[in-house]
Write a structure and sequence with these properties.
heterotrimer; A mainly alpha (about 500); B mainly alpha (about 120); C mainly alpha (about 180); A: about 500 residues; mainly alpha; two-stranded antiparallel ribbon; about 75% helix; disordered N terminus; C: about 180 residues; Four Helix Bundle (Hemerythrin (Met), subunit A); globular; disordered C terminus
Chain lengths: ~500, ~120, ~180
């Protein structure tokens, strides 16, 4: 048997695939940094472990350099591996968001880890691996590559959520995240197998050419539905959101920030890749589905957030509801306002990343003093930590969508996308979204009231001392939130260059 | 019926004959041998000493790491096998790619070794 | 003949799958899983995918189930839990209804589209003898990037396991050997 296998080798000679190393440079740099962190962790003494966070931070910034050079070198899309991996302006943009968000998370983690006596080497190794998965997701245009990227970004995240081994809450966080995550992967993989069975290709463009509204086989419809459900878990869209609050609450706070921002954004990026490249003519299937999910996600997230007394849990539900707003433009993708919707989602992701990471930075800073996660522990924050109070207010206002902050531009884009679609679906969604924007003021406002008007609990008004890395994170996020709102031009320019 | 299944049919028949043979031998010896059970004879065999506790005892988590390493290198073989049959065709490129693949996996092994989980204590 | 093989293999898969769910003893459930995975291997053989069948047996029925058994033994099999409690009211009947509904949905959609699904020309061109060659071509051309990163994924698994399995107090100093 084996001999026949070996002898049957009389086919055309093999030519190795052309690899554009410039286009792959961000991934390669990141992979190199990951290996460096692993090796450094093995051969460094315990007292020198702080070097690892520096390597991780600079590594992320180093990976950012090729992104800039690629962006400067022209808007031509570079396609590799038979169209499985495409580097274009859209993918560069989301990769940039992932890398910067990752850098901020490294800044947030620095003191948290050093004071908490955790294994630093493994932490940064896993964190960087997860970021590498996200960066890959930005370029994946093929079912297999998407799947590998998804596992790449999820598996380290499961472990990071369970980081605090002796804490039962953290164990619960990791277990729930893991079980629901792999279940979602299984559902998605089944959907992918159905899509492959129907179209005979794993390349998204090829699938897109075969799937047409009205003439799709039931199997393909099922495939689309299952694949979208798989990613709905990742972006914690209702009814697949159950894991999010418990996971966010139990995971270490920097990881919660990471999951609620970067991991979620990666899920959206995957959804964009699939919907815009593989199912552009399948709107009949995914539009109603995503529309219903978007509406119920923002409503349920908001209603539950109103009832929370723990800040991280409240933010977990707030992030679910923000996810609904990001889904909203996707529900009209494929129609008349497809381009608007794409710009709106990418804008929203950028703004949401800056704002939410900033808010988590404030939470970490405040809890260094109060050691509590209750809403009431923020009482009178402004009176003893004016800068943190102002920043927290700005981030909350941005999440609520108050001009002139970034959140306002993001919300505006999302509403514009659904309204310009000109469908009844779009109008209905816009109304639900508007109602929800008002509800959201309820809990964002109550946090603000706590900061500005409530007395300081137990009268301890010692100022909060924040380490320099945390300060840097706060400045980056605050600056980005403000800049994206004041100069929306930076973002609106995207609509010219992002195309899929 | 395809040629392939026909060749597997031979395997199946061979296997069936093997099972039958073993069953036959055991059956014959069961008929012929004397049967006098006692407590010592029907005791669970545990390396010659008297068994202690239940068969379902909790195992150490350390073994899990070994099992996982085994799975990982099992997967490595799965990838190496197609490459090995096509070694010449993929010449330098294949060697490079597989070299990177194996190198990264070795890192995992080095990691486990340096962290001291491979010691048999 | 092919039909017989198909029926036998499918029975193995289904019986095994049901066994995984209904067996009370977790070790028996894991062993039922082997039956399922083995049945799938038989399906692979019937489809002339010899290498995949071998992989299925070696990796899944062999290594992965061993891993499952390790986990089960780690948790201790006698730690039995009362499975009759319902955290959510009417969870079980609802679960059954949803399961039947999904089964009906998937089943009908596959039956309806059976005329549409055809073996493509590319699928026909694949010869059983060239299985491995085609697999190698895929790995080393279109999926080479995904393939390389799979190795990092495996290392992540090692790191994560070692991390979660290690004793916690004080990170041990690097071992001198």
């Amino acid at each position: 048997m084996l001999s026949t296998l070996l002898a049957s080798d009389v086919v055309a000679p093999f030519s190795s695939p052309k690899i554009d190393y410039h286009a792959l440079a961000p991934e390669l740099v990141l992979a190199g940094v990951i290996v460096a962190v692993l090796l450094a962790d093995l051969f460094l003494e315990e007292s020198k472990k702080w070097v690892l966070s520096t390597i991780a931070g600079f590594g992320l910034l180093a990976a950012f350099i090729p992104i800039v050079t690629l962006a400067v070198s022209g808007h031509r899309a570079r396609s590799m591996f038979g169209g499985a991996y495409v580097v274009d302006t859209y993918s560069l943009l989301v990769k940039g968001i992932f890398l910067l968000a990752g850098y901020v998370v490294v800044l947030l983690s620095q003191n948290y880890l050093e004071e908490g006596d955790y294994y630093q080497g493994e932490y940064y190794f896993l964190l960087l691996s997860s970021i590498l998965g996200m960066v890959m997701m930005g370029s994946s245009r093929d079912l297999v590559t998407i799947f590998v990227s998804l596992e790449f970004l999820s598996i380290p995240a499961y472990m990071l959520a369970a980081w605090r081994k002796r804490d039962l809450k953290s164990n619960e966080a990791g277990t729930k995240y893991y079980l629901l995550g792999v279940f979602a992967s299984a559902v998605m993989l089944y959907g992918m197998s159905l899509l492959y069975g129907d179209t005979g290709t794993t390349i998204l463009k090829g699938i897109g050419a075969k799937l047409q509204n009205g003439s799709m086989s039931p199997v393909a419809v099922l495939g689309i539905v299952f694949v979208i459900i798989g990613f709905a878990f990742k972006v914690s869209a209702v009814p697949f959101h159950n894991w999010a609050p418990d996971t966010y609450q139990g995971a270490p706070t920097p990881i919660t920030a990471f999951l609620s921002v970067a991991s979620k954004a990666a899920g959206f990026v995957a959804l964009i890749n699939l919907i815009y490249v593989a199912f552009p003519h399948g709107g009949d299937v995914f539009q109603p589905m995503i529309g219903v999910m978007a509406a119920s996600t923002m409503t349920l997230g908001n209603v539950m957030a109103l009832r929370q007394t723990n800040i991280v849990r409240m933010l977990a539900y707030s992030s679910i509801s923000q996810g609904g707003f990001i889904l909203m433009p996707l529900a009209v993708a494929g129609g008349k306002s497809s381009g608007n919707a794409l710009t709106a989602i990418v804008t929203y992701l950028a703004v949401y990343a800056a704002t939410n990471l900033g808010l988590f930075a404030v939470i970490i800073a405040v809890s260094r003093k109060t050691r509590s996660g209750e809403v009431s522990s923020w009482g009178g924050l402004f009176s003893y930590a004016p800068l943190l109070g102002v920043l927290a207010t700005a981030f909350l206002a941005s999440l609520a969508g108050i001009p002139p902050l970034g959140g306002w531009v993001a919300k505006f884009g999302a509403f514009r996308a659904v309204i310009t679609s000109g469908t009844n679906w779009g109008y209905a969604l816009a109304i639900v979204g508007a109602v929800n924007s008002v509800i959201a003021f309820g809990y964002y406002g109550s946090l603000m009231r706590e900061i500005w008007m409530k007395p300081v609990p137990d009268g301890d008004t010692a100022p909060i001392r924040t380490p320099s890395s945390l300060n840097a994170a706060l400045m980056i996020c605050g600056g980005a939130t403000l800049a994206l709102g004041v100069v929306p031009g930076i973002i609106l320019r995207f609509s010219d260059i992002i195309k899929l | 019926m395809s040629q392939l299944l026909r060749s597997y049919l031979t395997v199946a028949m061979f296997g069936a004959i093997g099972v039958l043979l073993a069953a036959l031998l055991l059956a014959i010896s069961a008929l012929v041998r004397p049967n006098r059970p006692n407590a010592d004879k029907s005791k669970v065999y545990e390396s010659g000493v008297d068994p202690i506790g239940d068969g379902w005892s909790q195992s150490q988590i350390r073994y899990y790491v070994f099992a996982l390493l085994f799975v990982i290198f099992d997967v490595e073989t799965v990838f190496i096998f197609p490459w090995a049959t096509q070694l010449e065709r993929y010449a330098g490129f294949g060697l490079l790619e597989m070299g990177i693949f194996v190198f990264v996996l070795l890192l995992g092994l080095v990691y486990a070794w340096r962290k001291g989980v491979l010691r048999w204590v | 003949m092919q039909l017989i093989v198909f029926i036998v293999a499918t029975l193995m898969v289904l019986v095994g799958a049901v066994g995984v769910i209904v067996r009370k003893h977790p070790v028996h459930a894991a062993l039922s899983l082997i039956l399922t995975l083995f049945g799938i291997a038989v399906h692979f053989v019937a489809l002339e995918a010899n290498f995949l069948a071998a992989v299925q047996v070696i990796v899944y029925a062999g290594a992965i189930v061993v891993l499952f058994l390790f986990v089960i033994m780690l948790l201790g099999v006698d730690a039995s839990e009362d499975l009759r409690t319902d955290p959510i009211t009417a969870q079980r009947p609802l679960g059954a209804i949803v399961a039947v509904a999904i089964l009906a949905l998937v089943g009908t959609s596959i039956i309806v589209s059976r005329g549409i699904l055809k073996v493509t020309a590319a699928g026909k061109a694949v010869k059983a003898a060239n299985n491995l060659r085609d697999l190698a071509r895929s790995i080393f051309s279109d999926y080479v990037f995904a393939f390389e990163l799979t190795s990092v994924l495996l290392v992540i698994a090692v790191v994560g396991t070692v991390l979660l399995a290690r004793k916690l107090p004080k990170p041990e100093p690097a071992v001198k050997s």
